[in-house]
Design a protein that fits this description.
Shape: globular
Helix content: under 10%
Number of strands: 11
Structural class: mainly beta
Radius of gyration: 14 Å
Length: 118
C-alpha cells in the first residue's frame, strides 16, 4: 500500500510559477512510473508529466518547455515545477504512481487545486 500526498497548489496570476510536491509513504526507488495528471472541469483527466523508471521523462505537448518534473529518491518525493502558467493550466492536479507489486498497481493522491488567473 502506498499513500501519495500532494502539496503546493494555489492561486497564481498568468505568467507566474508554482511548484507541486508529491510525497510517497515509502521508497519510490522501484516505482515504475511517477508523475502528474490534471483534470479541469468538464474535461477528462490527462497526463501532464511523468518519470519512467526513474530516468525517462514524458510531457504533454501543452506543457513542454514550461513544466519540469523531477524526483528525489532520498525524500520519496516527485516535484512539478510549473513556469509561465496560463489560465488553461487551471485544474486539479493529481499525483500518480505505478508500483511494481505482485501485480503492478496504480496509486493516486487526493489532488491539489491550481488556479491561474488572467
Amino acid at each position: 500500500q502506498v499513500q501519495l500526498v500532494e502539496s503546493g497548489g494555489g492561486l497564481v496570476q498568468a505568467g507566474g510559477s508554482l511548484r507541486l510536491s508529491c510525497a510517497a509513504s515509502r521508497s519510490i526507488f522501484s516505482f515504475i512510473t511517477m508523475g502528474w495528471y490534471r483534470q479541469a472541469p468538464g474535461r477528462q483527466r490527462e497526463l501532464v508529466a511523468q518519470v519512467v523508471s526513474g530516468v525517462t521523462t514524458n510531457y504533454a505537448d501543452s506543457v513542454k518547455g514550461r513544466f519540469t518534473i523531477s524526483r528525489d529518491n532520498a525524500k520519496n518525493t516527485v516535484y512539478l515545477l510549473m513556469n509561465s502558467l496560463k489560465p488553461e493550466d487551471t485544474a486539479v492536479y493529481y499525483c500518480n504512481a505505478l508500483v511494481s507489486e505482485v501485480v503492478p498497481r496504480t496509486y493516486w493522491g487526493q489532488g491539489t487545486q491550481v488556479t491561474v488567473s488572467s
